[in-house]
Amino acid sequence: MRTDKGLNEGSLSLEEAIFTRRTVREFQPKPIPRELIEKVIEAGATAPSALNSQPWRFMVVAGEKRDELVKILRKFPAYLADILALYPKEAEYISEESITDFAKDLGRAPVVVIVYMAKKRSDYAHRIDLLGCGAAIQNMQLTAWSLGLGSVCLTSTLWIESEIMVHLGLKDFELVPVLPMGYPVAEPTVIPRNPDVTTWIGL
Ligand SMILES: Cc1cc2nc3c(=O)[nH]c(=O)nc-3n(C[C@H](O)[C@H](O)[C@H](O)COP(=O)(O)O)c2cc1C
């Protein structure tokens, strides 16, 4: 387990990062050096986007402000039944107890990155901006992982979006996900992938 690497040691190759990254939901409470957070943010901001529109915006929250924010974020399990109803097959394998437990203090993540973007009037622009933000988040999660950090892309918080955005002074923007981040406590569980997702034509 890579838990405490500096900037220039411990970096993984792209392939290693892609194939070993796992979602982390339990963190050591120790702070993350600012240079590492900057590197993760820079990786996000380097993602491709339609017309190079760079739709993403980031807010990095730590310390007392993080504790205040968590008091709001921890309300999302109130919507757990609604969330799981949208994914009935997956819901069978999810422990509501572990989600509720995680939500109490976001697995003790010392840093919470808010990914957000401007509200869009057109459905087309909205869709492509979300794709751009998704690319940024993937860059961020892989970079964090390659630096020995873990993260979780937490979209369940969208159910309490307005409360979060008002609290952060961002009510005119749209929340994408919340990314709690920190040093992992333990090797996360490997979640298998469905190998049967591709149709090959002409090969
Ligand atoms: C778009 C997106 C939304 C997600 N939302 C949540 C979430 O709300 N809560 C959560 O605990 N994990 C969330 N995850 C993490 C997934 O549960 C996780 O990626 C998946 O189970 C596969 O596990 P792995 O990332 O460890 O390979 C999300 C991941 C993505 C990409």
From TrEMBL:
Signal peptide: none annotated. GO terms for molecular function: oxidoreductase activity. Residues 19-183 form the Nitroreductase domain. It holds the Pfam family Nitroreductase. PANTHER family: NAD(P)H NITROREDUCTASE RV3131-RELATED, NADPH NITROREDUCTASE. This is Nitroreductase domain-containing protein.
